[in-house]
Amino acid sequence: MLRLDKVSAGYGRAQVLHDLSLEVTAGEIICLLGRNGAGKSTTMRAIMGHLPLMSGKIWLDDTELSALPPHNVPRAGVGYVPQGRRLFAELSVAQNLEIGLRARGNGPEVREDVLTLFPRLRERLGQKAQTLSGGEQQMLAMARALCLRPDVLLLDEPTEGLQPSMIAAIREVITGLRDTGVAVLLVEQRIDAVLDIANRVAFIENGKGGPIMSAEALRADRSAVERYVGV
Ligand SMILES: Nc1ncnc2c1ncn2[C@@H]1O[C@H](COP(=O)(O)OP(=O)(O)O)[C@@H](O)[C@H]1O
Ligand SMILES: [Mg+2]
Hints:
By secondary structure, the protein is α/β, with parallel strands linked by helices. It folds into two domains: 2-77 and 150-228, Rossmann fold (3-Layer(aba) Sandwich), CATH 3.40.50.300; 87-149, no CATH class. The chain is built from nine helices and ten strands. The chain has helices at 40-47, 72-75, 93-103, 108-117, 119-122, 134-146, 164-179, 215-220, 223-228; strands at 2-11, 14-24, 29-33, 53-60, 63-64, 78-81, 152-156, 183-187, 200-205, 208-214. Strand 7 (152-156), helix 7 (164-179) and strand 8 form a beta-alpha-beta unit. The site of adenosine-5'-diphosphate has 11 residues, from strand 2 and helix 1.
């Protein structure tokens, strides 16, 4: 289980997150929902150790992630697909995957599993990342994170700007991972993209945690969506 315990963090002295607490359990998809600038991407960067914490702690089971140097966070089992993907554009598909595999010492069988999830990548192993379509790049970003065989997966707006068929393929992978016991923290802007795959929704506003609700409860009463996201 991933646990944020009263995390405060920001950029320089500009504090963005204020005492944010959140738990993501193995085998669940929890969606972090909030307006633009609410601190969703900052939350993910804080988990990855890309931002120093001002206070609070972040745990993965018994490991204190917030005490690790940033490069050891993926090694501890946290996969991260940043907003806007961030691939190594000049490197091939295969080389991008290799970086994911090496981070945790995983071998060819993990690579095989990942390529089975993303057959389009298997057909493009030698191609440079920058020449892939947007949807394929997103698949590669996810595939690289999955090469860690992560216990926790952080996905920052993974379907932003993609065609419906790609969105469907990515959602299917996400729910499949959840079903194998991965803890998924998902950021999406649109509630409708989320409600039918998320188990729970955690709201965030101005860097502070709001209510955490089951998707079921939200379907019955959307007033929190209006309050924290607007329409
Ligand atoms: N690199 C940065 N340096 C300074 N401020 C930043 C940086 N990135 C984001 N911020 C600020 O942090 C706040 C939260 O941003 P972000 O976490 O990206 O929001 P969200 O992902 O919810 O849209 C915003 O006010 C944003 O301007
Ligand atoms: Mg963001």
